[in-house]
Amino acid sequence: MKVGIIGVASSGKSTLFQLLTGASAPAPGGRPEARLGVARVPDPRVDALAVMYQPKKTTPATVEYVDVPGVVKGEGSALVDLPALRGVDALVHVVRAFESDSVAHPDGSVDPVRDAKMLELELILADLGTAERRLERLEGNIKKANRADDVAERAVFLKLKAALEAERPLREVVPGLSDEERKRLRSYSFLSEKPLILVVNMGEDEVRDAAGVLERRGLASFAAAPGRALVPVSAPIEAEMAQLSSDDARAFREDLHLEEPGLDRVIRASYALLGLISFLTAGEDECRAWTIRKGTKAQPAAGAIHSDIERGFIRAEVVAFDDLMAAGSLAACRERGTLRLEGKEYVVRDGDVINFRFNV
Ligand SMILES: Nc1nc2c(ncn2[C@@H]2O[C@H](COP(=O)(O)OP(=O)(O)O)[C@@H](O)[C@H]2O)c(=O)[nH]1
Ligand SMILES: [Mg+2]
């Protein structure tokens, strides 16, 4: 899974990107470029398996993040580097809510809902451009040769255009289309259709009352729309926490009434919004979490590991993580009957520990 990080200049995008992925700060000077980094998905189940199996290697699931540099407005260019976003599955919008005398907001004042709406509009206008260009092509084609396919596609794009002109993001529109209509859009990557996680970067003294701040700033109601999620963080606090031992970090969080690190919540929100789950594999060589979409069947799930395992799929030996922990070993699960043999139609569940039997 790949997530693009967007936001106005100095909202804390690069700071958060570095904290999420462990990347170092870019060298100063030079043209800012989109940067790619990998974050580990926190998952206590993988750690528990590692205690049980003592493997040579423990590998968490990962999420890729792209730090997309903001572009200064008023140069006739978009607010964000839009081409860098075409290949991502979801967007994180870092919304600035922190006040600072030393770090100026490019618009002169801190107003998170204004910024959230402005960025959303930017995505909508980019999609409107895509829709208009496509409609122009289709009109030309239809004049030349009146093909039914082109006429049908034009009808879908006219719907999109009307919605976008009314400033509605496509994530609110596309789910209401028929399967037939959605099929015609499959080769497009619309920015306002992508799930949006608003990461609200607030002041250090505000995180104790994060829910209150989100309410007062009007962000809670903005984020209530479908396909949007809200995660409050404070970049300096996350940075401080990243320096601490895990015990000290826990004490620090308790002091601030935070249940888990803000960065973990960003990753978790990405998973939830995209409908992703993890299944697990365990053995003496490696204990590992793998990412799939909710609803994936056993055979394509095997493909997350290797295409050979998917192709040569015979059966899956499956046990729920909790059952494995309760029994203490796979052998004990076999005796208790909690280790099941499943076929290719089995729908994999979050936390299934799976051993695929295959033949190549
Ligand atoms: N006071 C304060 N400063 C921050 C916070 N987050 C980022 N900054 C500072 O704001 C500046 C811009 O941050 P950066 O992550 O580079 O923003 P970007 O332009 O969105 O990539 C840096 O000097 C950061 O140290 C925050 O939550 N509070
Ligand atoms: Mg930056």
Please tell me about this protein's structure.
With 360 residues, the chain is of the alpha/beta class. It folds into three domains: 2-42 and 61-107 and 194-273, Rossmann fold; 121-192, DNA polymerase, domain 1 (Orthogonal Bundle); 295-358, Beta-grasp domain (Ubiquitin-like (UB roll), Roll), CATH 3.10.20. The chain is built from 14 helices and twelve strands. It has helices at residues 13-21, 44-53, 112-144, 148-165, 179-183, 210-216, 219-222, 235-243, 246-255, 262-273, 298-302, 307-311, 321-327, 330-336, and strands at residues 2-6, 35-40, 57-59, 62-67, 90-96, 196-201, 228-233, 276-281, 286-293, 313-320, 340-342, 352-358. The strands form three sheets. The chain has a six-stranded mixed beta sheet, sandwiched between helices. A hairpin with a 4-residue loop joins strand 8 (276-281) and strand 9 (286-293). Helix 3 packs antiparallel against helix 4 (148-165). The longest helix is centred in the middle third of the chain and has 33 residues, at 112-144. The radius of gyration is 23 Å and the shape is globular. The mean pLDDT is 92. Bound molecules: guanosine-5'-diphosphate and magnesium ion (MG). Magnesium ion binds next to helix 1.
